[in-house]
Automatic annotation (TrEMBL):
It is an enzyme of class 3 (hydrolase). It catalyses: alpha,alpha-trehalose 6-phosphate + H2O = alpha,alpha-trehalose + phosphate. This is Trehalose 6-phosphate phosphatase. InterPro entries: HAD-like_sf (IPR036412), HAD-SF_hydro_IIB (IPR006379), HAD_sf (IPR023214), OTSB-like (IPR044651), Trehalose_PPase (IPR003337). Residues 271-282 have a biased composition (Basic and acidic residues). Keywords: Hydrolase, Magnesium, Metal-binding, Plasmid. SUPFAM superfamilies: HAD-like. It holds the Pfam family Trehalose_PPase. Removes the phosphate from trehalose 6-phosphate to produce free trehalose. Belongs to the trehalose phosphatase family. Its EC number is 3.1.3.12. One of its GO terms (biological process) is trehalose biosynthetic process. GO terms for molecular function: metal ion binding; trehalose-phosphatase activity.
Length: 282
């Protein structure tokens, strides 16, 4: 499979519908910011839409669908914003909550002190820069610059990169998200690996569906496709996902739809489901 521009989900409905109807169980993995919650200027104010909350609550009573949130936020943070899913992965998959226990990637655990040192230094460095600030998430960190002046962006990125390189001593690395520089341990681990672990907590015959909007979601799409279904939230950019929806509003429609079209309701007529999905995402 090659990275390509995903098709609008409506065009992929026949394939998705038959996969969903043939599945005995579904593992539905969901990114948080930009997927369940619209992007907002202040990360502390990010919250899932009411339609998403309703859809997730409906899904929680469906015994054949397990829901998982897979976020770049810390586990504690994301859990405080959405609580009905069955499984959680925080810090881009470095911490996972399943079967009542939390596991943390052992190397990430060892490098938490280094992340803390880098975050403290970056917070001091950027203190005089308006609208540039650091979110310390213990296992990873984020330098936020959503509202910073455009003319400062290159400097912010260069300074952040050099501090991460100098203090991180090759044990930490940086990556870019939506108006954010992510600081993480340099280890071959991402959301895709987290999804593989979460799959162990779902019935073996589960169809895996993943919805996400950002670069860190790509490793999960890559793991899930082509046997499962990757759905990118946003415009027509290249991705490992095969389908796309426009926004968290369309995500809510998809969640409602999959709850209706999923295993226990496989007898719903396709025309009715298509009509429902297109009405909801209009
Ligand atoms: O994997 P996610 O659940 O999508 O988390 C990725 C990052 O999301 C948050 O930052 C992003 O959303 C903010 C609120 O909408 C926005 O202000 C910011 O510009 C975005 O980058 C979160 O604060 C980070 O910790 C996550 O890594």
């Amino acid at each position: 499979m090659l990275k390509d521009i995903p098709s609008p989900v409506d065009e992929q409905l026949p394939r998705i519908r038959s996969a969903v109807r043939e599945a005995n169980n579904i593992l539905l993995c969901l990114d948080f910011d930009g997927t369940l919650a619209p992007i907002v200027d202040d990360p502390a104010k990010a919250t899932p839409t009411d339609a998403v909350v309703d859809a997730l609550e409906d899904l929680s009573s469906n015994p054949t669908i397990r829901t998982a949130v897979v976020s770049g936020r810390s586990l504690t943070d994301v859990r405080s914003r959405v609580d009905s899913p069955n499984l959680f992965a925080g810090n881009h998959g470095l911490e996972i909550q399943r079967n009542g226990s939390i596991s943390v990637h052992p190397i990430a655990q060892k490098r938490a002190t280094l992340v803390d040192t880098v975050c403290s230094q970056l917070a001091k460095t950027f203190e005089p820069v308006p609208h540039c600030w650091v979110e310390n998430k213990r296992l990873t960190g984020s330098v936020h610059f959503r509202l910073a002046s455009t003319h400062r962006l290159e400097t912010i990125k260069n300074v952040a990169k050099s501090v991460i390189k100098r203090i991180g001593q090759g044990l930490l690395e940086h990556s870019y998200g939506k108006r954010v520089i992510e600081i993480s341990p340099r280890i071959p681990w991402g959301k895709g690996n987290a999804v593989e672990l979460l799959e162990l907590s779902a019935p073996t015959d589960s169809l895996v569906v993943y919805l996400g909007d950002d670069t860190t979601d790509e490793s999960a799409f890559e793991v899930v496709e082509p046997d499962g279904i990757g759905i990118r939230v946003g415009g027509p950019s290249t991705s490992w996902a095969s389908a796309r929806v426009r926004s968290p509003a369309a995500v809510a429609s998809f969640l409602h739809w999959i709850g209706t079209a999923g295993p226990p309701h496989a007898t719903e007529t396709p025309a009715k489901l298509e009509e429902t999905l297109s009405q909801r995402s209009a």
